[in-house]
Amino acid sequence: MIVSRRTALKTLVAGSVGATTGIGAYGYLYGRHELEVTRMTIAVDRLPPSLKGARIGLVTDVHRSRWVSEEDVARAVALVMAEKPDLIVLGGDYVTWGNRQFVEPSADALSPLAAPDGVFGILGNHDDDHAMPAALGRRGVQMLKDARTRITLRGESIDLIGIRFWTRRASEIATIARGALPMSILLAHDPRRLAEAAALDIPLVLSGHTHGGQVVLPLVGPVAASKFPVVSGIGRRESTTMFVSRGVGTVYVPVRINCPPEVAVLTLTAPSAQA
Predict the structure, then answer these.
(1) How many CB atoms lie within 10 A of CB 118?
(2) Per-domain boundaries in the chain
(3) In the chain, which stretches have pLDDT less than 50?
(4) Interatomic CA distance for residues 161 and 245, integer angstroms
(5) pTM greater than the 0.85 cutoff
(6) Which fold has domain 34-274?
(7) What does DSSP say about strands 240-244 and 233-237: parallel, antiparallel, or unpaired?
């Protein structure tokens, strides 16, 4: 039987649409729920010897919404707590588009988080500047809104520098970081702040925002996140190390493809110890 060009093209298009639909369905039904614990050792310049082996839990981009349930967030919380980190950081985007309906539910779901050296949070681009930080603050999260605080991690003094998503100018970040200890951590929702951190010689940055691309296509990669210096995992610039988490929730479309959600537990080490 001779197959016409038109028929062959229709068959190819139908097959492609079917495959795409199938992948999308998987990403909706399963991919966005396949939460992982990412355990990673991260080399930090000028790390005091006493902090070798210190563990930081990172939970970001929860996006509590009609698509990200209380159960989804509760599972993320339980996985982090089971790891027993010394310190927990929340990286922003607790709701989507500042949806007030989910501000309290998001804070409630995160409220069981606790760590010996504290739980600290920053704001993402989907968070409002008042209701969300207030809700988390009432539940014991120490919110850093363009602020620096000195904490004790495993008996060693370090500085946490927390900036809002909207704080982008190098001069603004420099003002917040002024007087910080050599061992400091910048908490910045947007990984594009790696440039400013490197310029300020801040040794470690923790970020989210990218969702790891959320949809990662074979041979193409994370198209939606290609503008970021680090899409997920570890990156370096000069003497600054950054870790970017894929996060817990979804945004725009409730789908994850080749990019499972995660909570991260980072073990600190000196560069020579990792080499």
Answers:
(1) 18
(2) 34-274
(3) 1-3, 5-20
(4) 18
(5) yes
(6) Purple Acid Phosphatase; chain A, domain 2 (3.60.21)
(7) antiparallel
